[in-house]
Amino acid sequence: MVYIPVNSQLMTGLDQVSTFNEGLAAIKKGDQWAFMDKQGAIAIDFRDDLFATNQKGVEMKAPVFQNGRALISRIKENITYYGYIDKSGKEVIKSAYVNATPFKNGFALVMGYSKEVVGQNKVLGKNVVSYEIEEFVIDLNGKVMTPMLHSRNYVPDKMKKGKSPDFTCILLGARMVGVKTAGQKWEVYKF
Questions:
Q1: Quick one: DSSP state of residue 157?
Q2: Three-state SS for 44?
Q3: pTM value?
Q4: d(CA 52, CA 30)
Q5: Looking at beta carbons, which pairs linking 14-20 to residues 24 or more positions away fall under 8 Å?
Q6: Beta strands in 98-185 (DSSP E)
Q7: d(CA 28, CA 4)
Q8: What is the pLDDT of residues 81-134, one digit of tens each?
Q9: Cβ–Cβ under 8 Å, residues 29 and 14
Q10: Which of 5, 74, 82, 137 has the fewest Cβ atoms within 10 angstroms?
């Protein structure tokens, strides 16, 4: 028996690589990410909207597929909005949320943002505006599974500086969600 070592180089010049998850690994070149399959072929080409998140047990941030969905982010009017793509790279849940989590057991937490004109300052000739954020659970198709979980006023200045609002809810599993109340206590809901 003869052992012949074979080293076949698949890609060069990558800035970062991640571990495989759901058959795909994220790879980074410059400011863009892509996904490769287990044969080393590019499954989703390099693009600048793939969003890197913390991976369990790994010390680096990288885009990841969970439940067949990966987070993307786009900036509109200086605010980052999040959505999801499928394994073909198609946007399947529109980038309309100011914060979003990766999917887990078929569900994800998302945060909506709304702006409402509630009056007008006649002296200054400007609208009086109320901004609100709301948290929801969505399914893999983007369908809202819960009523708003924690609606609150929010000034968009922080979002315009690149900071997404923090979640006050967590997915607990088994179609359950924990919601932190204004009194810093927790409530648990089944959906």
A1: H
A2: strand
A3: 0.87
A4: 14
A5: 16/60, 16/62, 18/55, 18/58, 18/60, 18/62, 18/63, 18/64, 19/55, 19/58
A6: 99-100, 107-121, 126-139, 152-153, 169-173, 176-180
A7: 31
A8: 999 999 999 999 999 999 999 999 999 999 998 888 888 888 988 888 888 999
A9: yes
A10: 5
